[in-house]
Design a protein that fits this description.
- It is a single chain.
- By secondary structure, the chain is an alpha+beta fold.
- The chain folds into two domains: 25-156, 2-Layer Sandwich (Heat Shock Protein 90); 159-247, Alpha-Beta Complex (Actin, Chain A, domain 4).
- Helix content is 30%, strand content 27%.
- The chain has helices at residues 4-22, 55-72, 83-100, 165-180, 236-239; strands at 27-33, 42-50, 109-119, 123-133, 140-149, 154-155, 205-209, 212-217, 230-235.
- A six-stranded mixed beta sheet has the order 1-2-3-4-5-6, covered by helices on one side.
- Strand 5 (140-149) and strand 6 form a beta hairpin.
- It starts with a helix and ends in a 10-residue tail after the last helix.
Length: 249
C-alpha cells in the first residue's frame, strides 16, 4: 500500500497527458455560393469553422471571415459586415461594371477555399487559397496563411514565429539560392527574379505544413505572373533552431 499514492499520481499524469494529446479543435465545413444565373458572377466559398465558444475559436473564425470579406468587397456603395453581404458586394461590383461596359464585361468568378495545413498543441496554421477573375486577360490566384497560438487563443504575427528573424532570413536566402540555382555571390535578381532593391526578403506568407515551414511568394511578388507562386520549404529539423522557444514544433 505504500506505493498507492505514487500510483495515483502516475495515473493522473497519464490521464492528463492523454487529454492533452486528444485536445483538438472541432470544426465543421461551411459553404457559401450565390444563386446561379446566365449573367452574374460565380462565387464558391468553402472553409472550416471552429465550433467551440472559446477565444481561440472566435479568433480563427473572425480572421478567416475577414480575409474572405476583404477579397469579395468591390462595391463601395454597400456596407459589408458578413459573408452574405460580401457576396452581394462582389455581385454588385460586377453589375455596376457591366452597366458601363455592357458588351465587354465577362462574368466574374471567385473561388475561395480554406483548410488546416498544420496543427499541434501550440500552433495551428490555416491555408486560404483564392482565385478571382474580375476582367482582363486572366484571373489572379493567391494563397494566404493564418497562424494561431493555440495556448493564447490569438493570431500570430509571422515575426513572432522566430527568435532571430535576421538569422532565419539569411538561412532562407541560402536555401532559396540553392533551390533556384542563383550563384552565392551574384545579385539575387541575376537569374530573373524581381526582389525590390535586388535584396532577398522573407515573404508575407509563412505557414506550417506537416513537412516544415513553407515560405510562399504569390504571383507578381518576386517573379512574373507566368512563373506562378514561388515556394521554399524548410524542414522542421532545420528550422527549429530559429523558432521562438515558446512555439517549439
Amino acid at each position: 500500500m505504500k506505493f498507492a499514492p505514487y500510483i495515483r499520481i502516475i495515473l493522473i499524469l497519464l490521464i492528463l497527458s492523454a487529454c492533452e494529446e486528444e485536445a483538438t479543435l472541432v470544426m465543421e465545413p461551411v459553404t457559401f455560393t450565390n444563386s446561379p444565373c446566365d449573367n452574374c458572377p460565380k462565387v464558391s466559398i468553402q472553409y472550416p469553422k471552429a465550433l467551440e465558444d472559446t477565444k481561440l475559436s472566435r479568433a480563427i473564425n473572425t480572421a478567416i471571415e475577414e480575409e474572405i470579406i476583404g477579397l469579395l468587397t468591390f462595391a463601395d456603395s454597400l456596407e459589408v459586415s458578413n459573408m452574405e453581404e460580401a457576396i452581394r458586394s462582389f455581385t454588385l461590383g460586377y453589375t455596376e461594371l457591366k452597366e458601363v461596359y455592357p458588351d465587354e464585361t465577362i462574368p466574374w468568378e471567385a473561388t475561395i477555399e480554406a483548410e488546416v495545413s498544420f496543427e499541434n498543441r501550440r500552433i495551428l496554421s490555416m491555408k486560404l487559397d483564392s482565385y478571382l477573375f474580375t476582367g482582363g486577360a486572366h484571373g489572379y490566384a493567391s494563397t494566404k496563411f493564418l497562424n494561431f497560438d493555440m495556448n493564447k487563443g490569438q493570431e500570430i504575427d509571422t515575426q513572432e514565429l522566430f527568435q532571430d528573424r535576421l538569422a532565419f532570413r539569411s538561412y532562407a536566402e541560402a536555401k532559396f539560392r540553392a533551390q533556384e540555382n542563383i550563384p552565392e555571390k551574384a545579385p539575387i535578381n541575376s537569374t530573373g527574379f524581381m526582389f525590390e532593391q535586388d535584396s532577398f526578403y522573407l515573404p508575407e506568407n509563412i505557414g506550417l505544413t506537416p513537412k516544415g515551414i513553407l515560405l510562399l511568394y504569390n504571383q507578381y511578388e518576386v517573379a512574373s505572373y507566368a512563373d506562378g507562386q514561388i515556394e521554399l520549404l524548410i524542414p522542421f529539423r532545420e528550422a527549429k533552431k530559429f523558432v521562438t522557444p515558446g512555439m517549439k514544433l
